Amino acid sequence: MEQNQETPSALERRIDIAVSLADIEKEVDDRLKRIARTVKMAGFRPGKVPMKIVAQTHGGQARGEAVGAAVEKAFGDKVRADSLRVAGYPQIQPKEAATEGTLEFTAVFEVYPEVVVGDLAGQKIERPVLTVGEAEVDKTIDVLRKQRTTFTAVDRAAAEGDRVVIDFTGRKDGEVFDGGQAQDFPFVIGAGSMLKEFEAAVAGLKAGDSKVFDMTFPEDYHAQHLAGQAVQFEVMVKAVEEAVLPTVDGDFAKALGVTDGDVSKLREEVKANLEREVKRRVQSRVKEQVMEALLAATPIEVPKALVQAESEQLANSARRDLEMRGLKTKDIPVEPAWFADQAVRRVKLGLIMAELVKANELHAKPEQVRALVEEMAQSYEDPSELMRWYYSEPERLAQAEAVVIEDNVVAWVSAKADTTDKDVAFDELMGNNAA
């Protein structure tokens, strides 16, 4: 058999494959003989069916398998001889004209790109620095208190931070609009759940007060039938309730899992949890910058086959997520094309990181994996239970290994790049998730 290779594009390859008809016929004959040993057919004992009948019944199958095996072998021999790394599956196309005594095919496929990680010295990375102290602990405990706010009725005008319970009716051009009516509706003034103009109209009212006021919805309001529309609301205040934060005492500590109610232990636990969360967020920010640095320093073309496979995987993940939320994907079709840009990025990073790991021995060491699992386990009531859970299944442990490899890559790139430390404010790093 003979193969000729062409290179029409950077990653696409074409190989012409010529398979000897004589070799095919011999393989077909061998396959039919193997089939004849066990084939069952009415009127004949097993293994005694005449070859002519076996050929008539199974000849097409045997020939198809023989041709497929011959082409697959020829293709495999060629890519191994040329040290080609095939990405995805080849498209095998028969050629119309063939040399006498042969079957000829063209295999079209893509190969993995050669990845040479670029110079990282010019890439800038800022590593956030934050030391958790008593002030950060106090802020977090305040958030925990606000999460456990209770409300008590008061006989005064509603103000910022109060919860009000109202009946309201909204009308547009004198008609009640869709979604414009509710009874016993609670909301906290200043919490942002209602439009500011609506909150301002209710502030200052006492229980039993009513008010009629005009209001215009914002142009970008989520309900399109109300966006930019002028309406009129009629509001009746049924209750005004003042926020009451729990005292930081033994009961509060017990409610947060400190069984003996020791407030100092609560503060220690909050600080330990904060330190773990700060470390995680710092790592996340540095990792994001490292990935951007790798992409900027190492421009590569990626095989379309890998991008398509990654797009399919992302689409399947999105479908599963929708189904877990109780939505039917047939009602919300999810197309792989939606994830093309994300898939390209993921494939590029996967190829670049694989090259880095291979070239610089950044594989996960057992002691690194164990240290990571132990660190994650510290936030559990029984750390040993999480340790057993991870080490009981190879697939779970593989997830931890993948995280370690990623951390190794981040550390390696950070050492090569222009990395500087930068102090960061607690609120800026933690955002709205200070707890």
From TrEMBL:
One of the GO BP terms on file: cell division
SUPFAM superfamilies linked: FKBP-like (SSF54534), Triger factor/SurA peptide-binding domain-like (SSF109998), Trigger factor ribosome-binding domain (SSF102735)
Entry GO MF terms: peptidyl-prolyl cis-trans isomerase activity; protein folding chaperone; ribosome binding
Keyword hit for Membrane: no
Keywords, ordered alphabetically: Cell cycle, Cell division, Chaperone, Cytoplasm, Isomerase, Rotamase
Group of enzyme by EC: isomerase
One GO cellular component, as annotated: cytoplasm
Entries under Gene3D superfamilies matching the protein: 3.10.50.40, Trigger factor ribosome-binding domain (3.30.70.1050), Trigger factor, C-terminal domain (1.10.3120.10)
EC number: 5.2.1.8
InterPro entries the UniProt entry points to: PPIase_dom_sf, PPIase_FKBP_dom, Trig_fac, Trigger_fac_C, Trigger_fac_C_sf, Trigger_fac_ribosome-bd_bac, Trigger_fac_ribosome-bd_sf, Trigger_fact/SurA_dom_sf
Known catalytic reactions: [protein]-peptidylproline (omega=180) = [protein]-peptidylproline (omega=0)
Subcellular localization: Cytoplasm
Keyword Methyltransferase: no
Domain notes: Consists of 3 domains; the N-terminus binds the ribosome, the middle domain has PPIase activity, while the C-terminus has intrinsic chaperone activity on its own.
Protein family (similarity comment): Belongs to the FKBP-type PPIase family. Tig subfamily.
NCBIfam families per record: tig (TIGR00115)
Role according to the record: Involved in protein export. Acts as a chaperone by maintaining the newly synthesized protein in an open conformation. Functions as a peptidyl-prolyl cis-trans isomerase.
Name of the protein: Trigger factor
